[in-house]
Amino acid sequence: MNNKNLFERDRNSFLPTYKRIPLEIIKGEGVYLIDKNDNRYLDFVSGLGVNALGYSHPKIIEAVTNQINKFAHLSNYFVTDVQTAFAEKLLEFTGMDKLFLTNSGTEAIEGTIKLIRMKYGPDKKIFSLTNSFHGRTYGSLSLTARIKHREGFEPLLPNIEQINFDDINDLHSKIDGNTGAVFLEFIQGEGGVKPIGREFAEQLFSLREKFNFLIVADEIQSGVGRTGKNFAFQHYNLMPDVVVAAKAIGGGLPLGAFMVRDNLKDVFAFGKHGTTFGGNPVACAAGIAVLDFIYENKLTQKVEKLSNYFLEELNKFRIKYPELISEIRGKGFMIGIEMKNYGNKIVEQLRDNKILTNLTADNVIRLLPPLIVEQEHLDIFLAQFDGILTKL
């Protein structure tokens, strides 16, 4: 057995790209993570929105076990029932017409960029919004607007620019007949849990009718029931041309997709795009279990009801602690608490009190609990959060 400390072994093995949390987790159960000392941590990060059904969910375990006993991988030369069934369910979930399955969100974004270039050629502009995050590979990083992610990697892809977030005047000044596509997160996640304004979204879709460009909804973090709808764009009663999903759709296994409306179904010809592992049978089996559980248990309705309670209670803290809290934002169980200060300290103290949260955009405490969370878990967070704020 290796006698070195696990964290020392980690440092000796991996490139230093992650700031590790100082916990040695050995298992997960429901909404809890358990460390080697048998401490139970209420997890309000859920693998950055991946573990929608929490940990060790019996439906996912059953589905994965059944599939891996058949085969773990076939190339995409073969048609499989599990992959096709997952595709059918996911398309029904989104209201889109056809899809391509990937291993991750950033791969799905890359495929979407290729789709746009194939349709419009290299000269039309592609826009994302300031403060956005769409991934870290070369194409998706070209869309990601946050400077800290781009530094050292430029020049990136040409003809990709940014529109100021929620700025209608800037939107109108930049969109024209040379626009090929606009990528947007209806709720920016990494950028601080910021929902796009309804008027901005409606103006964007109106401009689509005039200039005939594509609108791509990046639902990698906000999709699959997290916001109280199947996908965040459904809060706006607007239909994008492309929907990109990942994270929660695989139930903890690597799975992503970009889904298109009928008018884009023939853009890719044979051989123009492909993947070895995308749409892996085991991941698709887990994905079916996730989508079926959400549908059969009316989980989006439950998320909407419980999150309304949770947001109402959090907003009481904003009134109670105006010197500490700037704003409470989000929809469903995709929530951001913007702090005026002490963000890191609060996240650390919550962890000391056995609650896991995440800090993003410098001072926003991001809450992404599993969708199976109950009111008792929300009340535990509220009590601990209140106790910490009282002492600051």
CATH secondary-structure class of the domain at 58-296: Alpha Beta
Give the CATH topology of the domain at 58-296: Aspartate Aminotransferase, domain 2
Radius of gyration: 21 Å
Straight-line N-to-C gap: 44 Å
Strand segment tally: 17
| Strand ordering within the main sheet | 4-12-11-10-7-5-6
Q: Main β-sheet, in a few words?
A: 7 strands, mixed
Helix content: 25-40%
Quickly give the CATH architecture of the domain at 58-296.
3-Layer(aba) Sandwich
Under CATH, the homologous superfamily of the domain at 58-296 reads: Type I PLP-dependent aspartate aminotransferase-like (Major domain)
Order of helices and strands: HEEEHHHEHEHHEHEEEHEEEHHEEHEEEH
Number of helices: 13
Question: What does the overall shape look like?
Answer: globular
Calculate the mean pLDDT score and round it.
97
Low-confidence stretches: none
What do you see in this structure?
The chain has a domain at 58-296: Type I PLP-dependent aspartate aminotransferase-like (Major domain) (Aspartate Aminotransferase, domain 2). Helices cover 38% and strands 19% of the residues. It has helices at 6-13, 46-49, 58-68, 81-94, 105-120, 138-143, 147-150, 168-174, 198-211, 281-296, 299-320, 343-352, 375-391, and strands spanning 25-29, 32-35, 40-43, 98-102, 125-129, 160-163, 179-184, 187-188, 194-195, 214-218, 242-245, 256-260, 325-331, 334-339, 355-356, 358-360, 364-367. The radius of gyration is 21 Å and the shape is globular.
